[in-house]
Amino acid sequence: MAAEPKALIEISSEAGRKIGGIYTVIRSKAEYLHKKFGNNYLLIGFLDDKCGEDIKFEEPTGKLRDIFEELEREGVHCRYGTWTYGDNSRIISVDAKAAGERIVEYANGQGMQKDKQSNYFKFLLWKHFGIDSIMEKSWDFTENIVWCLGVGMLLERLFSKGLFAKESTVLQFHEWIAGAAILHCKIKGLGLATVFTTHATVLGRTLASAGVDVYNEAEKAKVPISLNVAYNNRCEGKHQLEVAAAKECIVFTTVSETVAQEVEYILGRKADVITVNGIEFGNGKGDEETHDLSAYARGELQQFVEACFTSYYEMRYDNALFVYISGRYEFTNKGFDIFIDALAKLNSRLKKSKDGNERKVFAFIFAPSSVKGPKISVIKNYLLLDKINEILKEIPETKGKPYVNLQAAMSLLQGEIKLDVGNMAKGFIKDGERPHINCYDISYQNDSIINACVSAGLNNEKSNPVKVIFYPTYMKPNDGLMNLNYYDVIAAMDVGVFPSRYEPFGYTPVEAAVKRDIAITSDMTGFGRFIMKKADKKGCGVKVIRMAGKSSQQASEELSRELERVYKLPAKELEKEKASAYGMMSHLNWDKLVENYYKAYEMALDNNSKVK
Predict the structure, then answer these.
(1) Are residues 292 and 354 in the same domain?
(2) pTM for the whole structure
(3) pLDDT (tens digit, 9 = 90+) per residue, 39-56?
(4) Looking at 430, 453, 468, which one is the last position of a domain?
(5) Looking at beta carbons, which pairs linking 566-569 to residues 24 or more positions away fall under 8 Å?
(6) Are residues 420 and 451 in the same domain?
(7) Is residue 468 within 8 Å of 276, Cβ to Cβ?
(8) pLDDT tens digits, residue range 136-173?
(9) Would you say 225 and 267 are in contact if contact means Cβ atoms under 8 Å apart?
(10) Furthest-apart CA atoms within the chain: distance in Å
(11) What domain range includes position 415?
């Protein structure tokens, strides 16, 4: 019978620190782990300014206070608290920069040497695991191994002081960033039940960025990838650290079938368990409240696009199809090129039909980049339109009536109020020949997204049924334009499109569907592969574009046809598919998927006892 762990320590630089997708994984399943382990569930994260919004810090007591004082003398600064958004689970955040800078003396095989402790730790990683970091110049490699050094020192004391028992505690490490902490524990001979989860490989992501079809290569490979490939791509230190962590952990897991194939090829070890990423499904706001929020956000979105276009030409905004893509600005990996090409094909076909004159497509591209600030013309037009709309909501002629656009509303007015509103409307700014693609001023030349849109004929000219808005900054309540958070904005959309070429799992289509958008993903993503068999029914609201082994042109053609199909759906059918997409996400509920983690934890205890 498998041993059941009594305690769990979960280590990730994203615990209580919102910087990426792993944050979502850990935060969303914390409720289940906290419920299972109670106060025997502890998270360890990275301490910096990003923790302030998430963690409620407090003074430690008893043995924990003594441990913190000991570590402080050695250059490791720890803070204790509860993770507000992680079900108020216990968390310790660690800053070990001072420890990395301390000068230590050690034998390097040729004599005694004095150096920074960070370099001593690199020496130990080379000595015990052959990790070559001599040429590793990336700041994050040193920063993360130093953090791991501090985490390892903390773990030593948590066990030596009796706060946790080795025979009943599992330690869960996420991603290569936490990998050196596993290796520190191994060097110290702590004999812990360790689980290492990789969400994406460093080398796999690097190769995908260079245009390599990693999944296809992994599928064909008979032996693991050559180490020379990592050297050629200048990521040998991180890659070798990740390989060592995968080899030295007791149980190795990954988040999807696609990554399981990838890690066997890239890291040389088969995953013991696939721990599919889940979501909090059905635990949020009620349907009525969600619908009200969506309706409000839709109105704000329509007003925003009208502010971008109204000074150039007249069109309807009330019956448009709102489509979006979002993600890190990885032009090829995230499939921005496929999205833009598909929009161009859709635009060409709609131009030839009468529908394109009556109904527009507003396609948003959310990809954070380097910006100077919002375009002054867009800000002024947005504020002016908002002021006019406030007036229109209160006067009898337009109060409570469906809103098509400003011009249609003004046609209902008479007399002095019509003159007043008309004079206000003369204040709209026209900044150039046609509406801008980007609503922010970008702080560099030759942007790939803008250039691709222009080359594809998506230049926002009047005759184009498809209009493009590039929003090159993080959406948040103080972003200077829409001033809404990302989740409120996508709740106002109709379709989320994510044709990634490399995505170990991919939360963006999941988030789209949870917000009742039709979600389009690709079979090159972990989520796409997971949902394919469940999403094969017509009209289910989730579409998986076939991209494996296909050309970019083939992928964009399939995507454009799917967008055209959705565009032509009657309003009731569109809403039905959006609701169906939401229902499909029940397959990702943590209440089912967390069992994969429990299986890994039991295996870790059992296998560790056999090692001993």
Answers:
(1) yes
(2) 0.85
(3) 999 999 999 998 988 999
(4) 430
(5) 566/321, 566/494, 566/495, 566/518, 567/321, 567/346, 567/350, 567/355, 567/359, 567/361, 568/355
(6) no
(7) no
(8) 767 789 999 999 999 999 999 999 999 999 999 999 99
(9) no
(10) 94
(11) 376-430
